[in-house]
Amino acid sequence: MTNTTADDRPAGELTIRTATATDAEALSQFAARVFHDTFAPDNDPMDMHAYLSDAFTPEKQAAEIADATCVCLVADMAGVFAGYALLRLAAPDPIASRTNAGEQSVELQRFYVDHAWHGQGIAPRLMAACVDAARTAGGATMWLGVWERNARAIRFYTKQGFADIGTQEFRLGSDLQTDRVMSRPVELSL
After folding, report:
1. Which residue in 18, 187, 37, 24 sits closest to 112, CA to CA?
2. Are the C-beta atoms of residues 177 and 150 closer than 8 Å to each other?
3. Tens digit of pLDDT for each residue in 66-124?
4. CB–CB of 50/43 below 8 Å?
5. The dihedral sign for the CA sequence 50, 61, 19, 168
């Protein structure tokens, strides 16, 4: 897989597929770049470096891909990553699990579309694949944490049927941030 910009996006059919071990190195680079592009302008460079050097190593990506409790999906456009998502199966959310005891929930831990591909319809298709994966895993609800300052993502998740149910902490380097926790039923008609 290669990186892309708006000027060199390949033409072709979008494929959303489960990542394989051979994707780990490229996914590591892609994930770190997209996370950096999304959050670096609003965060301390030292905190960003500390987080990136731990969260997106090739070894960590390979371990997540191999983990039976995870589903890693990539949006592949003619051999170029356009987006990716990581789901953690049977991951009780920190808020609703208190009231929805017994329901299996799936965490959408990561969901990113490369900025060069924004507005191309990739995010809704990737989200639909995430919902399908959650359903296949027997999930009743799907939840996520999104930085409270990421208004674009919050709008997208709201359009996808997620509702804000509270907050949780997220550590970026030495910076303790607040994420909104959002949840939706897997069997939600939009």
Report:
1. 37
2. no
3. 999 999 999 999 889 999 999 999 787 777 654 455 678 999 999 999 999 999 999 99
4. no
5. negative
Q: Quote the CA–CA distance of 85 and 65 in Å, as a whole number.
A: 11
- How do the domains of the chain map onto residue ranges? 11-185
Instruction: List residues bridging with 48 in a β-sheet.
Output: none
| CA angle, 16 then 17 then 20, to 5° | 145
* Overall pTM surpassing 0.70 (yes/no): yes
Residue pair 88/130 in contact (Cβ under 8 Å)? The answer is no
Contact 108, 87 (CB under 8 A): yes
Phi-psi region of 129 (alpha: psi -120 to 50; beta: other; left: phi over 0): alpha
| C-alpha to C-alpha distance for 151 and 42, rounded to whole angstroms | 13
Which residues lie below 8 Å from residue 81, measured CB to CB, with a gap of 6+?
1, 3, 4, 26, 27, 30, 74, 75, 114
| ∠ Cα 112 17 93 (to 5°) | 50
Of the candidate CATH numbers 3.40.50.300, 2.60.40.10, 3.40.630.30, 2.40.240.50, the domain formed by 11-185 belongs to: 3.40.630.30
CA atoms within 13 Å, Cβ hemisphere of 124 = 9
One-letter amino acid of 81: F
